[in-house]
Amino acid sequence: MLTEELVEEGIRFEDKDEDLISKLPDCILVEIVSRLPTTKEAIRTGTLSKRWEHLWTSVSNLVFLDHNENKFVFDFFSFVDKTLTQRPRLKLYTFKLHTYYNSRLYGSHIQNWIRYAVTCNVEHLILRLWNRGYRNEFPLDQFVFINSCFTHVTLSCCAFNPTGAISWKNLRKFCIAYGKFDEDFFENVSSGSPMLETLELKYCYGYTRLNITSKSVKNLVFEGYAHACYCDIIEFNAPNILTLIVQDVLVLRKFLLLNVSSLVEAHLDYTIPSWEYETTPEEAEEEMLKGFILNLRHVKHLKVGISCSKVLDRLKAKGFLSPLNLKDPSDTSPL
Questions:
Q1: Which pLDDT score, from 0 to 100, does residue 14 have?
Q2: Radius of gyration over every alpha carbon of the chain, rounded to an integer in angstroms
Q3: What span, in angstroms and rounded, lies between the C-alpha atoms of 95 and 116?
């Protein structure tokens, strides 16, 4: 089938031992190179032949992964600097950067890399920036918060202090992990992201109430809450969301659902750690899960995952009657 397609493109093969792949059109070769896991691997294809030498400069995905968690490696920063210098400022689909860094030495480098991606009209921006030796998050410049090309943004270990309004006119999915923000930040996100559909919060902190009143946001994932600045209660107001997932470790005593009246599907699969409660840890688990279930009686599909199943069993043993919308925990089918 592939040979027939290549013949249609005007390519003929006389020697069955010759390099057939290198005879493919540039657009196909660039697509092959762009599917490699990292940019470093894409660049290495340049050693195959002269034909491949500069193909990587046309890929629309840049992926830089620094796996050296326990030691500082200058070569990574030098490699990224050199790569972005050699690549033309062409349209980017994805820019993914995972690194450990020292802010005093290389904070400005990372700012320049992000600026490069933004000037290339990147659609998917994925940053995970671990500040080595410091607890503070990476400060994002205002230009990150004003970009109409973003469609998917994932920001881990970043600070959210925009100096002006947020303008993400085409953003559809926003994920924040290990970041601090306040209630005003989300008001700013909602007003500046009219296309936002999915919101994921992973181990974020700094807020006690979430107001997600945007009519466009339909899906919410709340994955974990844990920080030294302990929070007793989170209040949650999201009258327009359709799906809700609450999972992982919640270092909270209460998670109050104030308004989720439009909710159709919900999945609860979380744990809460043992500590000094006013009641026993088991009773605290039961109180939180019971509160969730009672507040979600109106949803069409409610599922309790493995992490909550033992708690549910204890509630049933005490006479708690499961609502009709609650699926059996052993049912592994999606909602």
A1: 44
A2: 24
A3: 10
